Amino acid sequence: MEEVIDIVVDFEDYFPSMMERHGAQGLLMELCNGFRLLMDGERGLITFESLRMKSVVLGLSDLGDEEIVCMLSEGDLDGDGALNQVEFCILMFRLSPGLLMYAQ
Questions:
Q1: pLDDT greater than 80 at residue 78
Q2: Res 100: pLDDT
Q3: Where does the record place the EF-hand domain (predicted)?
Q4: Cβ 7 vs Cβ 67: under 8 Å
Q5: Residues 6+ apart with CB under 8 A from 94
């Protein structure tokens, strides 16, 4: 029998306030800046290696390989194992409950 572990994550969604402050265009620019921060400069994609390396720089050094793979697979729409800019932006919108409510 598999053990189930409940993990509670304290999450604050800043996207709605960014949308109010900067508008849709400004929010998209900030998402693109975030993508560039995390991407592999040579491939132009967020890869396992780039996310692992940049997560340490962002103070998330305790992220395990499984967590990184899970993060990538959550947004990987074309199945190449990496995130392009469109996949990243779609994932960020999907993960923002506040933006979904803002759109309604």
A1: yes
A2: 64
A3: 43-94
A4: no
A5: 75
Kindly list the distances between the CA atom of residue 101 and the CA atoms of 5, 87, 90, in Å, as whole numbers in the listed order: 29, 21, 16
For residues 40 and 96, give the distance between their C-alpha atoms in angstroms, rounded to a whole number: 24
pLDDT for residue 38 is more than 70: yes
Taking 70 as the threshold, does the pLDDT of residue 80 lie above it? yes
| 7: three-class secondary structure by DSSP | coil
Encoded tokens for 46 = 């967020």
The tally of CA atoms less than 13 A away on the side-chain side of residue 62 is 0
**Count of Cβ atoms closer than 10 Å to residue 21 Cβ:** 10
Cα gap 75→21, rounded to integer Å: 26
CA nearest neighbour of 31 among 78, 104, 94, 100: 94
- What one-letter code names the amino acid at 39? M
Q: Cα separation of 102 and 14, whole Å?
A: 12
